[in-house]
Design goal:
Number of domains: 2
Radius of gyration: 18 Å
CATH topology of the largest domain: Aminopeptidase
Helix content: 25-40%
Number of strands: 9
Oligomer: single chain
CATH superfamily of the largest domain: Gcn5-related N-acetyltransferase (GNAT)
Largest sheet: 9 strands, mixed
CATH class of the largest domain: Alpha Beta
Structural class: alpha+beta
CATH architecture of the largest domain: 3-Layer(aba) Sandwich
Strand order of the largest sheet: 1-2-3-4-5-9-6-8-7
Order of helices and strands: EHHEEEHEHEHEEHE
Shape: globular
């Protein structure tokens, strides 16, 4: 298969990439955040990369430089029929190389359970972030079956956070937290030191 790796450098391409992302991840609405992605494209277009075969976008990896000097990857996705061909790996490699050029030392991203092993193979470490506005850190800690605690925090004075080191996706643990605490949300976070 012949494909090209490209950077998002104009509004027309940005729209195509966001529509692709929105179609691929039906639960996310990337179109609503278009102005944010446009600002990111203007600032660092080499962090917004995609693969194209003929005129069809077949994979994307969209990242941005945070105020703290780290890079967050907002989305990584490949069209179903092109998966397992190394496209996502290659796109992430382009972002990692650009991160090194920028002097960035950490890349972070959220992951679905099924992608944790993929990111682990690329050198990313996984952690489970648990958040609640109504329930205290101590309450969140009460359900921990023994995973090492990386940190606890109260973000913005209102969001209680618990972060555990996990070596694999544990959807049962995530469901336990979300079912026990009505306002609780969980997210697998992956990070890599560059």
């Amino acid at each position: 298969m012949f494909y090209e790796m490209k950077y998002v450098t104009d509004n027309s391409t940005l729209d195509r990439v966001l529509h692709f992302s929105n179609r691929l991840f039906k639960t996310y609405d990337f179109i609503k955040s278009r102005s944010q992605w446009q600002a990111r494209m203007t600032a660092q277009p080499e962090l917004l990369v995609y693969a194209q075969a003929s005129d069809e976008i077949i994979a994307v990896a969209l990242a941005y430089l945070e105020d703290n000097g780290n890079i967050t990857v907002g989305v990584v996705g490949t069209e179903q029929r092109y998966r397992e061909q190394g496209l996502a790996r290659e796109l992430l490699s382009l972002i990692e190389n650009r991160a090194k050029d920028l002097g960035v030392h950490l890349i972070a991203l959220g992951a679905v359970d099924s992608a944790v092993e993929f990111y682990k193979k690329l050198g990313y470490t996984s952690q489970l972030l648990i958040q609640s506005q109504k329930h205290t850190v101590d309450e969140l800690l009460s359900l921990n079956p023994g995973y090492p605690i990386l940190y606890t925090n109260i973000h913005n004075g209102t969001i209680h956070q618990l972060c555990m080191k996990v070596t694999k996706a544990d959807s049962g643990l995530r469901q336990l937290y979300e079912n026990t605490f009505d306002d609780c949300n969980t997210q697998i976070m992956c990070w890599k030191a560059i």
